[in-house]
Amino acid sequence: MHIAIIGTGYVGLVTGACFAEFGVFVTCVDKDQEKIKKLKKGIIPFFEPGLEDIVKRNLKENRLKFTTRIDEAINESLVVFIAVGTPPRGDGSANLEYVEEVAKEIAKNMKSYKVIVTKSTVPVGTGLMIKEIIKKNLEKPVEFDIVSNPEFLREGSAVEDFMRPNRVVIGAESEQAIAIMKDLYRPLYLIETPFVITDIATSELIKYATNSFLATKISFINEISALCEAVGANVNTVAKAMGLDGRIGPKFLHAGIGFGGSCLPKDTMALVKVAEEKGVELSIVKAAIEANQRQRERLTAKIINAFDNNIQGKTVGILGLSFKPNTDDIRESPALYIIHTLLNKKALLKVYDPAAMENTKNIFPDIIYCSDPYSVAKNSDALVIVTEWNQFRNLDIEKIKNLMKGNLFFDFRNIYDPQKIRQLGFKYFCVGRY
Ligand code: NAD
């Protein structure tokens, strides 16, 4: 089977490369010429473990190709995936202009039956909208089907998530389209991946409901962390005991500085917006968004308060810039909020991240970028762990203490043992623990 993926970002590239690995012939399209030029040489434009090998292998074996020519890609494909971005608008709703643009392009170039699949996260009703756009822009009548097939991969473990998903969701109107999608995903059928086959609107909503529930779990434990601090309880133990309850489960119950990234913040906002438009109150999702913002503010205030509200001229070292480990993605990263707030208070900042420094330089060109955690610690008054990269879990804390000018240690991912750090002479601050 030949398929086309329109939009070769995190999701499009992983999807394309993994389908090629399944033996499908894949053409990945992007309008970004530089990106396509690099990909043709096997250069991955972002950091994602394991992806480079798959891209290079499938390029070599001619199952994967990259182009800026959407017309050619559509022509030779039976299935066309839309994987372009759906960033938030100022009011929180999803911006669908890239999806609309691609739908028009597909219509213009469609000469035979196609299955058109949205992989992008799109609000309920988008499938229908795409259908209307295509009908309106077709040059001559051609049969086609619309499918919603939301993606649940996580940056940092995207390849594994795509190859071994918890489930595949397919929303479609026609048996023919469902059969083609099942055929495409056959290797996952063979490993007994659960398939949820449903209508398009339900499928679109599943993705938003999932991300909003995950965001709610994080915000819930973060609110409990604030209460733990107020009453002298330990949030890690609370979360562990809660997670042992089979009805709750242990995942997404780690207190920290809150969620960021390209999905949870934007998808929660977009869901609230869709509900508002329909006159439905989603008070829990709204509260999860607010609690997330409060957690950032509360923890950043801990840094400022530790300097008696006078952080001007003090040097703060930041470890971790990406919104989570194993990615270079800094979209909505809590680190950006901390840096922005401390810069406004005229603090000096030294930072290090194993993958996300280049992206951060585009936003904050004037802070100090260091080559490792120890250079960050050198002469700093405070050290803040923002992202729980493995590299930060086993630091030589004694060496750090000797290099630092001050003794303030903020562990916003609760990765160190408070007693051990305090024994070394640090003032240790964490989240919901004592
Ligand atoms: P991205 O910004 O990394 O990639 C989008 C790509 O689409 C860009 O390379 C852009 O140049 C390209 N593009 C835009 N308009 C185009 C056009 N007209 N023709 C061809 N290419 C075009 O975005 P992403 O992170 O891959 O996200 C894509 C979608 O997948 C979003 O809806 C997102 O919510 C969803 N999603 C993302 C993740 C994730 O972890 N990143 C996970 C699940 C779902």
UniProtKB/TrEMBL annotation:
It comes from the Bacteria. Belongs to the UDP-glucose/GDP-mannose dehydrogenase family. The keyword Magnesium does not apply. This is UDP-glucose 6-dehydrogenase. Residues 317-418 form the UDP-glucose/GDP-mannose dehydrogenase C-terminal domain. It is an enzyme of class 1 (oxidoreductase). GO terms for biological process: polysaccharide biosynthetic process. Pfam families: UDPG_MGDP_dh, UDPG_MGDP_dh_C, UDPG_MGDP_dh_N. NAD(+) binds at D30, K35, T86, T121, E155, K266, R331. Substrate binds at F152, L153, R154, E155, K207, F252, L253, H254, A255, G256, G260, K324. GO terms for molecular function: NAD binding; UDP-glucose 6-dehydrogenase activity. It comes from Thermodesulfovibrio yellowstonii. The keyword Zinc-finger does not apply. Its EC number is 1.1.1.22. Keywords: NAD, Oxidoreductase. Pathway: Nucleotide-sugar biosynthesis; UDP-alpha-D-glucuronate biosynthesis; UDP-alpha-D-glucuronate from UDP-alpha-D-glucose: step 1/1. The active site is at C263 (nucleophile). The lineage of its organism: Bacteria, Pseudomonadati, Nitrospirota, Thermodesulfovibrionia, Thermodesulfovibrionales. It catalyses: UDP-alpha-D-glucose + 2 NAD(+) + H2O = UDP-alpha-D-glucuronate + 2 NADH + 3 H(+).
